[in-house]
């Protein structure tokens, strides 16, 4: 029986590349997985796993998600009530927070307590947005999504804001960019990455493969 992964289409820019990377992982691992890019709440509610990509500003992505009638309810039912595996990517991860402070104060999905705040590196020579390859610092190597991923592995980042969770034990990995900032978070069946796994070559493909096999 096929395992269905829904990649939510809410107007964000990187969903096709994320879907393509997920399909590549499924094929390489010989998994019977169907990857669907969808804006339909029923498809999300019925999926076995859900991916929320994100490129751009927090407020724009939040509005795009809210504009899909019934999508937030479908997400809540699938993720919070049924425990379906969920992966947020970049702004998709940030939307899991309580609030975002980009261009005003905006409510998030409030799945992880904390705020999304401006990235302010301690080194003035470091530019914002944080763009490019950096080494991960794994803080929870026991998490299934990080199996085979170690401190020093490279991941690709593009962001101007960062997630500041209230609970340190929800942080799975960090990155040093003028100070340690969150690179991956998780609790229960929820996970998110600030970096783009679909652009992170071997590290990213490994994480996506782990996600496809994850049964929290």
Could you give the topology of this structure?
Elements lengths: L2 E6 L6 H14 L4 E6 L2 H5 L3 E4 L5 H9 L4 H11 L4 E4 L1 H4 L2 E4 L5 E2 L4 E7 L11 E9 L15 E6 L1 E5 L5 E6 L3 E8 L2 E4 L7 H13 L3
Parallel strand pairs: 1-2, 1-3, 3-4, 4-13, 5-7
Antiparallel strand pairs: 5-6, 7-10, 8-9, 8-11, 11-12, 12-13
Total discrete domains: 1
What's the CATH class label? Alpha Beta
Strand content: 25-35%
Order of helices and strands: EHEHEHHEHEEEEEEEEEH
Which CATH-level-2 architecture? 3-Layer(aba) Sandwich
What does the largest sheet look like?
Answer: 9 strands, mixed
Radius of gyration: 16 Å
CATH topology: Rossmann fold
List how many beta strands DSSP finds. Answer: 13
The residue-averaged pLDDT reads 95
Count of runs of 4 or more consecutive helical residues: 6
Low-confidence stretches: none
Strand order of the largest sheet: 2-1-3-4-13-12-11-8-9
Structural class by SSE content: alpha/beta
State the helicity in percent bands: 25-40%
CATH superfamily descriptor: Class I glutamine amidotransferase (GATase) domain
The rounded distance between the terminal residues' Cα atoms is 19 Å
